[in-house]
Give the backbone structure.
Amino acid sequence: MLAEQEKQGSFFQFQLEGEFVGFLGKPGKIKYLRLALGDREVEIKLSKHLRHAIWDLKPGDGIQVWGEQKFKGSLRELTLKAYGFNLISCSYQAKSTCTSPTSPCPKKGKILLCQKSGCVKRGGKKMYDALKEGLCNLGLEDSVSIEVTSCQKRCKRAPNMVFMPAKAKYSKIPTKEVSSLLEKHYLQ
């Protein structure tokens, strides 16, 4: 039984939080990200759908990454493959410019944002940037996270997002209306 597991490899789930350091791979074709965990750095392979969604990370951003870890052969050979990530906070340079929340107790939540190729072509990347900036400006970067998702089955009305926990779905929202939506869902 153990010999079969060693041949096939053993899969386990992982979830890590740390500081984004940078990407590895050829220019224009990233395959790995480097994450600082205290005094250590870890290389994490990106799944194909995640490679297109993670471009706008800047060194110093706090992120949470989850996926599978696989042991090949002996337990010393470990590979990590990421299937999702959340931005935990603005970059350290931007933290000083973030304002404090306008409400004493902002609601916790997350925003599910489609980052499939159709949504990205129709403004998904701009929407991600606008959401990140809006959260930082309103002081919500610690209580509300942006979760990149796969297809939400509304591709023609892209970019698509869902505000949780209210499950409010939005499509084709201009980026200038993002802050009012964030205030409506998380500060009132």
In short: The mean pLDDT is 78.
